[in-house]
Design a protein that fits this description.
There is one protein chain. With 452 residues, the protein is an alpha/beta fold. The chain has one domain: TIM Barrel (Alpha-Beta Barrel). It has 16 helices and 14 strands. Strand 9 and strand 10 form a beta hairpin. Helix 7 runs parallel beside helix 9, helix 8 runs antiparallel to helix 9 and helix 15 runs parallel beside helix 16. The longest helix has 25 residues. The protein binds beta-D-glucopyranose. The site of beta-D-glucopyranose has 11 residues, from loops.
């Protein structure tokens, strides 16, 4: 059976990680601009001011995308490039930039997938309380509706949020991402609640603003646990490990169900309601109805998971990984089976067409004397993960697309420019882009899989 005929084969990026031009075209500051200018926040005191300079090089970048053989490209819009103050006045230059990017993609036969929010929150709105302010729901709604009004004549696919787990968990609970503060759990749950309300309000407004029928999705992340064996007990234990609510800790935002049950099933998970009851905001029926808007697809950014077996009473137990088990350059476990079980568990629970909106690896890439980058580890990573993903398709899981993270090496948030996730190498001195061996491998892979 394999991948469907009209499968979306793509690569992904985000605005803050590649665009640069942080003060050009009327763009307003966002929390990552401010955070990265602090002396101790980003490794080696780097900033995202220039990043990959994609803002100036986007035409060449689209040609490069075409040469990679992808039929789809997932990128995000910088909110403060469109609305410098988050709300109110629109920057015509910002509007034009994305319009030209979209035209360029389409004329090169590449389907744009727009993510509305990939963490670069307008600083002006942060100063008004950001996600803690109940008005944040309307701010995001207006921004989302504007983007759809502007581009839905040409763009069909829109994603509301990228990884709410991360921008709330890392940004406001652990304080290691922008804005770099540590708030009490009470505030964290309030923010999460507002983000999901903002998602729902945006979905309604986007459908109203659309010039043609559009498809809307959502892209959270998780550690996609998978069973040690195919026994029903281990499968159930892995499912529980994925969807049970985590205990209250710094990791509490890394829940698969907390962020998706309300949005797709219209209710918070019962176990979480009990575990977090002292910290929750008021949750009304009206809020839940707002969050729970019909979606066209569901996406997950999946990089790894834990192998789980069933304990004596059926409880999930993580299998100890051998000390020589493979890891990426960032020390993340390499666990290809998460790309079979993740899609399977999510489609069983949420019953929506499924995409992998990000998957990939940081590897120790060097530009060799031959002018090439021989990233065999990445090729091995991708081929084993994609084998598992294809196996999910073979077993009838409704998967629609795969977006490799990332198109090119870019600003890896608090890690700066050290980790290289791209299938295209970025030479940050010259801004030259050099396709790595994995780029040729991926191109060939897409060709083979699209033939059938
Ligand atoms: C994020 C990307 C990030 C990647 C690798 C995801 O968490 O959406 O922005 O660069 O993983 O860390």
């Amino acid at each position: 059976m394999g991948f469907k005929k009209d499968f979306a084969w793509g690569v992904a990026t985000s605005s803050q990680q590649i665009e640069g031009a942080y003060l050009e075209g009327g763009k307003g500051l966002n929390i990552w601009d401010v955070f990265s200018h602090e002396p101790t926040r980003i490794k080696d005191r780097k900033t995202s001011d220039v990043a990959c300079d994609h803002y100036h090089l986007f035409r060449e970048d689209v040609k490069l995308l075409r040469s990679l053989g992808v039929n789809s490209y997932r990128f995000s819009i910088s909110w403060s490039r469109i609305f410098p103050n988050g709300v109110g006045e629109v920057s015509e230059d910002g509007v034009r930039f994305y319009s030209e990017l979209i035209d360029e993609l389409i004329s090169n036969g590449i389907e744009p997938y727009i993510t509305l929010f990939h963490w670069d929150y307008p600083y002006a709105l942060y100063k008004k309380g950001g996600w803690l302010n109940d008005e944040s729901v309307d701010w995001f709604k207006s921004y989302a509706a504007k983007v759809v009004e502007l581009y839905s004549d040409r763009v069909t696919y829109f994603i509301t949020f990228n990884e709410p787990q991360c921008f709330i968990g890392h940004g406001y609970l652990r304080g290691i991402h922008a804005p770099g503060i540590k708030l009490p759990y009470k505030d964290i749950f309030q923010m999460a609640h507002n983000v999901m309300k903002a998602h729902g309000a945006a979905v309604i407004a986007m459908r109203e603003a659309a010039k043609r029928p559009i498809k809307i999705g959502y892209a959270p992340t998780c550690s996609a646990h998978y069973p040690a064996t195919d026994s029903p007990e281990d499968i159930e234990a892995a499912r529980r490990a994925l969807f049970d609510s985590p205990k209250l800790s710094e990791q509490v935002m890394w829940s698969a169900s907390w962020w998706s049950d309300p949005v797709i099933l219209g209710k918070y998970p019962e176990d979480g309601l009990e575990l977090y009851k002292d910290y929750l905001p008021e949750i009304t029926e009206e809020d839940l109805r707002l969050m729970n808007q019909p979606l066209d697809f569901y996406a997950q950014n999946i990089y790894n998971g834990k192998e789980i077996k069933s304990g004596e009473n059926g409880e999930p137990v993580a299998v100890k990984r051998p000390s020589d088990a493979p890891v990426t350059a960032l020390g993340w476990s390499v666990t290809p089976r998460c790309l079979y079980w993740g899609p399977r568990f999510f489609t069983e629970r949420y019953r929506l067409p499924f995409y992998i909106s990000e998957n990939g690896a940081a590897t120790n890439d060097v530009l060799g004397a031959d002018g090439k980058v021989h990233d065999e580890d990445r090729i091995k990573f991708l081929s084993t993960y994609l084998d598992e993903f294809e196996r999910a398709a073979d077993d009838g899981v409704d998967i629609r697309g795969y977006f490799l993270w990332s198109f090119m090496d870019n600003f890896e948030w608090a890690e700066g420019y050290g980790p290289r996730f791209g299938i295209v190498y970025t030479d940050y001195e010259t801004m030259r882009r050099i396709p790595k061996d994995s780029a040729y491998w991926y191109k060939n892979y897409i060709e083979q899989k699209s033939k059938k």
